[in-house]
Each structure stands twice: as C-alpha cells, then as structure tokens.
Amino acid sequence: MSQQYEPVIGLEVHLELHLPQKMFCSCPAEFGGEPNTQVCPVCLGLPGSLPVVNREGVLATIRAGLSLGCEIATFTKFDRKNYYYPDIPKGYQISQYDLPLCRKGSLTIDVNGKSKVVGITRVHLEEDTGKLAHVDDRNESWVDLNRAGIALVEIVTEPDMHSAEEAVAYLKELKAILSYLNISDCNMEEGSLRCEPNISVRPVGTSTLGTKTEIKNLNSFKVVLQSVQHEIHRQSAALSRGEEVAQETRLWDEAGQKTVAMRGKETAQDYRYFPEPDIPPLEISKEEIETARASLPTPPKERRKALVEKGIPDYNAEIIVRSQGYADYFEACLSTYNEPHKVSNLLIGGFLQELNQRGISEEDIPIPPEHTATYCRLSEEGGIGKAARKQVLAALFDTGKDPESLVKELGVSQVEDQDEIGKMVDQVIAENEAIASQVRGGKTSAIMALVGQTMKLSKGRANPQIVQEILKKKLEG
Amino acid sequence: MKREDVEHVAHLARIQLSEEELQTFGAQLESILGYMEKLGELNTDDVEPMPYAVDVKNAYRDNPDHSPLPRDAALKNAPQLDPEGKFFAVPKVIGEISPNQGKSGEAGS
C-alpha cells in the first residue's frame, strides 16, 4: 500500500505600507516614479546619514497586529539583518529580530464549510529593498532605489495549514482584513502584498516536521494555489521514491506550471542580526495601543455576518465584503432601494463585470449609489426591458446620468400595455399556427416557444409575464 | 578557527581571500574571538541584556517636508550607470536571489 503524506504549510506575507513617506527618512513613498528620483542620503545608505523612525509606520503595524489579535510589545527595537545584494545599499536591512512589535495572534478561516484557526507567530516592521532589472545583453543589473526604505510589514504564521486551499483561504482573509485598515494597496500583481509559502510533507500519522522548501515570486491567489499544490505533489512523490527533499528556495515557473529550484544554490544565509545602533528602542504605551484599537474598522468577517443576517446568500456577501469600499457602497445603495438580496445580485453580477471591464476599483466607483439602486429597482420592477438591462447599465457608466432619464432617452422602457402586447401576440399566433394549435390541443409546454417569439418581436421590451398570461387567455381559453 | 569558518565569513562579505590572507585573517579573527571570550568568565545570569549604550527612547521624526536628492546627485558616486543615466549599473547578479524579494524585475523594465 502506498504511503499517504500530509502537507504542512506556513505563510510569510510582506505588506508594503502606503504612507506618504518612507520608514526611516522623509522621501516620498510612492509606487513607481522615475528611477532613482525618490532617494536621499538615508535610503541610499550614504556614510554619515542616520535613519529616524516614522511614527505612522509603527502605528500602522500596531493596527495590523491588533486586527490579527496579536499582543503588542510594550518594548521593541530594530535590528540589522546583514547581507550583500545590490538591492540593499547599506549592506543590511533594518528589520526586527527578537522583539517584534506584535506576536501571538490568530486568524480564523473557513474552508469547505469548516472553521479553522491559523496562528500568527509575529508581525514586524522593516524596510523594503530597491528593485533590480537584469539586462541580459549587457551582462548588467540596473538598480532603482525608489522603493528602498519604504515601510514593509512582515506577517508570519505558524505551520498550521494542511492544504493549498487552506493557504489561499488564509491569504484571502488576510488580504481582506488588511485592506480594511487602509494601510496598504494590498495589490499582489504590483507587489505591495507578497506571499511566500513554506511547505513540507510528512507521513500521515507522524508529527515530526519534514524538510521544508520556500516558494517565492508568487503574484496571485491562483499561482499560490497552483504552486503549493505542485510542491506538495513533488515532495510526496520524492519521498515515496525514497529520495530526500532538499531544503531550498524554489520559484514558480509559470510556463512549465511547476516549481523549480533556484539556480546557484548558496550556503544557508547567515544574517548575523544585531540591534540597530542608529535607532533607539521604542516603548509603546497602553494609551497608544488603545488609541490604535479604537481606530480599527469593523472587520470583514463581521460585516459578512451582518449581510447574511439581512438575507443575502453567503457567496454574495463574501464578494461584497472583500473590499471595504464595496461593502460601504452596497449599504449606501440599500438606503435608496432596500432589497438586500436583489442589490447584492447586481453588485456581484453585471455591475461588478462593468467595473472589471473598465478597470475601475471597487473602492472608487464613479456612479452615485442612488443611481445604481434606482437601476436595480427599475430592472426588478419591470421599468427596464430585460434585453436592455445591460445597455442601460453600460450607459450608466458611460454618461453618469440617472437611470430614469436614460431609460427614456434610450426608449427601452418595458412594455406593460395589455393592448400593445395583445397585438403582438395575435401576430405571433398568426405566424405560428402549427404551434398555436398544439397548445390549443393541450400541449401547454409549447406555449414557451410562442412567448419567445413575442419577446423577439418586441425586441425584448415586452413584460414576459404579461405575454404569457395573454397567450394563455387566447389559446387555452 | 576553522578554515571553513574564515571562508564562510569571507563569502558573506563577498570578498575573495588569497591563501595567505585566509591564514592571516584567520589568526586575527581567532585572537579577537579569544579576547571576547574573556567576557564569558563573568556570571551574567541575573543581568538584563543591554542592547543600547545611550539612554534614549522613542526617537520619532516629525515628518518634515523633504526634497529627495536630484538624480544626478544621487547617482554621482556610482561606479557605473546605464546608458540613459537613470540607474546604478552593477555586474549582473546571476543565480542568486535577494533574501527579501524573490526573483527580481524583468530585464530592461
């Protein structure tokens, strides 16, 4: 019988804080920018320069820690993590080693209807590094230090996850919680939220941890899922062949859909941490912690619960609370049209599609919620013909006008008039005598074909219920 | 001090040492470490670690406005630049990975 293996997964997440200034100098901390134009002696690591702590970075980290249920350190310090690489001009990164700002938190995830608690080992504050561009034909690497020194929060879990699905569920929940804090863009594609899973496998029923590997270079939930699945499979297969798993860092190879060992394996990194002598330690007061706690938003999980209690399906609620701005927008729509389930269907369906197609963020919707709510009401109550709904929605985004004017302008209001529909039905019966006589003969299901023809004739504007009623009256007597 | 340890320290500092230097620095490191070993003679069981010599705490900056350096000034001491003068150019880092970033950016981006 073949041996079964259980994966053990921990996650390390780096979050780039969105603050006006860098962590240890006052350079602007914006994304992008012309290379090497947001730098100064401190973040270039020039001799004689001294880093000084940005209080906002500390507060943002405390808020992140609190929102993950962490204990906040009352005494904390920075340490130097030493290594030589061109993305770090000083030869060390200012980070935190043995006294991180936050520790011992947890986050609850739901996978396949089961709740599970993932332990958070620590949340600490450090500085981001510069960016390298490798130029093959010149055999050079080009260094841009705009990003060097931007505040970076690292969040480390316990090895509590046992499937790729759990890892992704953790990451999604974490991203939702963090994005509610407004401390980061939390954008995986642009690298403001980076995830590095570490994975090992062990024979089912044993408790000793196997040798782990770490995967880097993952920039979407999908890739996290695929790479962790692949890595579990690869390690289990190696062990069942009697081979060993090497402790190493691996990269996701998108084209080959597999993880690959990094080239040029080095001896284990030796960072020689020691306390950063340029930065005095920090004492965090109870008042500071309580002020930070009071500033925390209602977390996504609670908002989701509140929405479900309003009668919205779980699935809809989950999508709506993914972003705080979208959840707020949803609530705002309800004050115009208080039909939570119907509005939620719109917001996770056609409306979200328009946002995505137009590249509009859920945090930044240009349409007043009253218009969206009115549009939803008109669609539901028959003010807009079914076939024209998509057209009106697109016009809503294109023009910004209110939906009632748009329906008039576009001439797409639903036809409710009995006489008008009656005339169309007569025409359809005349043109489809064969089907009509089947219905008269008792084959009532055939009536739907006639409904379809009438809808077509009305260019989708007729109210389908009325069409059906009139057809029944005329054919079934 | 073991020869591998000296080689390891040299590797971490990204310096190459000749056979003769390995011997010289190895002996020097040995004597420095031996000297520091003296501290081990003290009983420090009840002594709190003291990471800082100066009694200062909570030194935050008040985020004054601050103009970054003009790029020319920032790149002035760079041994080498890219042809457009926007980046520091360094010998290509092959097969290594930044401990913090995973794979670095795409070529020429």
How would you explain this protein's 3D organization?
The complex is a heterodimer of chains A (477) and B (109). Chain A is α+β, with helices and mostly antiparallel strands and 477 residues long. Helices cover 39% and strands 20% of the residues of chain A. Chain A has 17 helices and 17 strands. Chain A has a nine-stranded mixed sheet. A three-stranded antiparallel sheet of chain A has the order 6-5-16, with no helix packed on it. In chain A, helix 2 crosses helix 5 and helix 14 crosses helix 16. Chain A starts with a strand and ends with a helix. The mean pLDDT of chain A is 90. Chain B is mainly alpha-helical and 109 residues long. Chain B has a domain at 3-40: Glu-tRNAGln amidotransferase C subunit, N-terminal domain (Histone, subunit A, Orthogonal Bundle), CATH 1.10.20.60. Chain B has three helices and two strands. The chains are: A alpha+beta (477), B mainly alpha (109). The interface between A and B is large, with 71 and 49 residues. Strand 2 (53-54) of chain A pairs parallel with strand 1 of chain B.
Task: Summarize this entry quickly.
Chain A has 477 residues and is of the alpha+beta class. Helix content of chain A is 39%, strand content 20%.
How would you describe this structure in keywords?
heterodimer, A: 477 residues, alpha+beta, nine-stranded mixed β-sheet, three-stranded antiparallel β-sheet, B: mainly alpha, Histone, subunit A, 30% helix, disordered C terminus
List the helices and strands and how they pair.
The complex is a heterodimer of chains A (477) and B (109).
Chain A: E1 5-16, H1 41-44, E2 53-54, H2 55-67, E3 71-72, E4 75-76, E5 79-82, E6 92-95, E7 102-111, E8 114-127, E9 131-135, E10 140-144, E11 151-157, H3 164-180, E12 193-203, E13 213-216, H4 221-240, E14 249-253, E15 258-261, E16 274-275, E17 282-283, H5 286-294, H6 300-309, H7 314-320, H8 324-334, H9 340-348, H10 350-357, H11 369-381, H12 389-399, H13 403-410, H14 418-431, H15 433-440, H16 447-457, H17 464-476
Parallel strand pairs in A: 13-14
Antiparallel strand pairs in A: 1-11, 1-12, 3-7, 4-17, 5-6, 5-16, 7-8, 8-11, 9-10, 12-13, 14-15
Helix pairs in contact in A: 2-5, 3-4, 6-7, 7-9, 8-11, 9-10, 11-12, 12-13, 14-16, 14-17, 16-17
Chain B: H1 3-12, H2 19-37, E1 60-61, H3 71-74, E2 88-91
